[in-house]
Design brief:
The chain is mainly α and 104 residues long. It has one domain. The protein has helices at residues 8-35, 42-63, 77-102. Helix 1 packs parallel to helix 3 (77-102). The chain is elongated. It starts with 7 loop residues before the first helix and ends with a helix.
Amino acid sequence: MSQAARPSGSCLARLLWFGIGPVIMLILAAANIERGGGWLTTIDVAFFIVLAVTILARVIDFKTGNPQTATGAPATSGHLRRYVPGILLVAGAVWSVANLIGNR
């Protein structure tokens, strides 16, 4: 299956894990810095929901046919196994720093 013939669900999943999800998490982190208010606010809950949806979108993209890396190369199960802990680590660090700065 060529990239042009990818199912629309797979394209949406790729957009979510690669672009939309991380951008929304950064916006929520910035809002958390600006507003503060504690370690478990609605912004924090929204951040973790977006994180879960981002990971789910990557898994869906991987399972629905033609998985690719961010650079367009074919993805293997090793890429998926590295992506999940990687995004959890980076998102956790971003969330922690945002809360530390926002709750000063």
